[in-house]
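During the no-cost extension, the postdoctoral fellow (Dr. R.K.) reprocessed legacy sequence entries with the updated structure-token encoder. One reprocessed record is reproduced below for audit purposes.
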Amino acid sequence: MKPQTLFRYCAAALVMLASAAASAQVTRAERADVHGLTDASAREVATLIAQPGFATAVTGTLADRPERGVALSAVMARFDPGARTQAARTLAAQDRQLRQRKGLPADGADLLQVRAYVPAGRRLADLPASQLWVAVLPRGDDRHWTTLTAYDAQGRSHVLDARIAPTFPVLIVDIDTRRAVQEGMAVVNAGLQARGLQSPDRIRAAADGTASLDLTRLDRIRLADDQEPWALGGAEVFAVVSGLQIGAAEPEMATVTLPWLDHDNTDYTPGQPLVIWGNYRFDAANVQFFEDDGDTNYQALLIALTDGVKAALGVFVPEYAVVADIAGAILKAMPTSWFANDTDYLDSLYLLRRGENYPDRMGAANNAKVTLSAVTLTE
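Re-encoded structure tokens follow.
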């Protein structure tokens, strides 16, 4: 190996290690802050349960679909329209801090929400509102959760089993991850575009003047049952599509939200565009699925997909084999903590081809089973 080439590889490796270390340190701090804020909010809501009118506002709003959750700000607006109480001001301030910790714009919608776990055959109204406990999700990898904490109206803490669901309704204060993912993916895609790693759609023009756009459509997907704790609720899944740019030795990447994919071990038939072709050299791309459980900082995710991926790839010749290498670089660039509770890696589909159909294609991790169809849109 030439000294110049060796130097470039070593430099790239050092940049990647430094970036990963810094990102991991920031991620750990952000996750601690996010958990601390949600825990403090759960305590605040528990004390409010004893206040006349508050519990009724919560249970009344959640009565029809308790598992979906409602914004805490909406509940507080009904309970305290003028935001005169200290609790209203505290919760609003904690919501603003959450947006900052998650790398989201300051002027977006509130993220704190309250939802309920209600056992089968029971109703939220079965338990007197003043006796409801308010739980908060634990730190760390959800696969290793053993207990979680719930607070009562007197501020006392109670321990619940994370794997065995309670026999009574429980309120849960957490982050509206669906809203956060939608906003976060917009932040990431805008950042990829600004850094030249996401190209505008390439529409093909035919000799007769018609224009067309080739897509790969996600017709069906099923994720294996991973036995997540009862308190987590529905998943929020997003995909990272990657490949090589046309005309440049650069990665091409885009993120796609899958907001309807709530549960494992369930078939979903969205008919949603997954890969927009024309931007990928060799007409080949990878798709990787991740699940966001609430703690992700999207600015850190953007750094991982830009600086981290480029550092992991190093200097390369834009050959076909590099397409799959980009998917590997994405996983290498992710801080290890993102494979715990905040962003779980689900599966990878390598080297999908433009114009091809994939019935019942299994991912590399044997977790995602998908059916993909080639579609051409014309004017």
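Confidence is low (pLDDT under 50) at residues 1-30. The first helix runs from residue 3 to 48. The remaining legacy entries will be reprocessed before the final report is submitted.
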